Amino acid sequence: MTKSANSNPPVGGKRAILMVCDGLRRDLITPQHAPTLSRLAGEWCNFKSHTSVFPSTTRVTSASIATGCLPARHGLAGNTMALDEGEGLVCRNAGEPDFRDRMRRATGQTLRVPTLAQRLAGRGGSIVYSNVSPGAAYFQDPDGYGYVYHPSGAFGPGLEPLPESDWLRIEKGVAGDQVMTARFCEEVLRIRRPALSVLWLSEPDHTGHHTPLGSPAHREAIAGADACVAKVAAAVEALDPAWQDTLMIVCSDHGHETGESEVHIEELLVAAGLKESLASSDVVVAPNGSAALIYMSEHAAARREELIGYLQTQEWVGRLYAGPELAEVGLETDTALAVAIDMGKSDRVNEYGVPGYSYLAHNAMAGKDYTGLGQHGGLGAYEQQPFLFARGGDIPRRKEVDRPSAPVDIAPTIARHLGLPQDGMDGKPLV
Ligand SMILES: [Zn+2]
Q1: Do residues 166 and 216 both lie within one domain?
Q2: Rounded to the nearest whole angstrom, what is the distance from the C-alpha of residue 140 to the centroid of ligand 1?
Q3: Ligand 1 centre from 73 Cα, in Å?
Q4: Phi (first) and psi of residue 296, to 5 degrees
Q5: Which among 33, 196, 242, 354 could disulfide-bond with 126, CB atoms 3.0 to 4.6 Å apart, if both were Cys?
Q6: What is the pTM of this model?
Q7: Smallest Cα–Cα separation from 329: which of 278, 262, 384?
Q8: How many domains is the chain built from?
Q9: Are residues 352 and 388 in the same domain?
Q10: pLDDT, tens digit, for every residue of 101-136?
């Protein structure tokens, strides 16, 4: 355990705690497998129409939660996205530890808007504990204003590496999440007490990607995440029984759909004469689970209408956004990103009674096929069904809110609770 205390006192004693159960679909919160979350759904404020961003992937959502902005403004377009680091467009994995350095080389910066960690530097500070990909963890605070702890490393202010003894020595899954949660309650909540404490579990997303949705293993992972929520909620309540100074938000970043089958989009584009070769940088597909982003170099731009015409004939394409339409789904319109695809969906029910299937964009970097397993990234009814419950601050108790809310609303809610301005955010406080 680190001995370094948080050097900045919280602003006016106010604190915010954000806990994310990665990939937990709202309709899979049941009294049998998620007793705590089922109870909080009734006792806390329950945002019943909460959705994700597009692409509905962990890294994009992480950046939107941290900044209160959509991808069009923060600049992280996907779990994978094409970057030109001087040798043409290449698809890169935003989950890798070195991605933020690649992003700096290609664009001169990481995220283009401030994070909560930056806003809180010198004003109570922030500490992030995360058991998801390094990229998703680091995009909570890519430029190192606060503390970030992850199995692949830990950083303090100025991105100063912390000693290995401080790293989270855990693996993805319930057991690792439980170790991280216990350390979070003791070290972050009780001892260091920053203005913002973030705990991001790997489950049930991790198991959902490896087993069918609703299978016994997936339900067990949901129960494991639920037990972690119970521990954190109890620790918070013990520290501030009246919830006068504390705001706690527990949520997920996206839901899941079942993979229908994988589509090798780049192979199809090469075969259709729309891309020079699999390795070429004229047209580059960035697979994002049940979504795909297609980038075009300047010299390939003349092929755009032909590409769109081809895609419109494909049964695996659900919805397609090109040019100015990219703004409708929160994406940039002035970069090499030419087309975004929400892969085709159906309401079919899987062997465990869980509805929602989607075609998937094959990802050669993933090293596995997600057919029949949980996946996400698109605009499907179920992947766009995360949950969000909140308590404390100005949040009313025992209330169900039907008004739509989204990950970009989390940062303004936290900023307002902590007495910070909410300028330059796309979202609005939740209530
Ligand atoms: Zn996720």
Answers
A1: yes
A2: 13
A3: 20
A4: -130, 135
A5: 196
A6: 0.96
A7: 384
A8: 2
A9: no
A10: 899 988 999 999 999 999 999 999 999 999 999 999
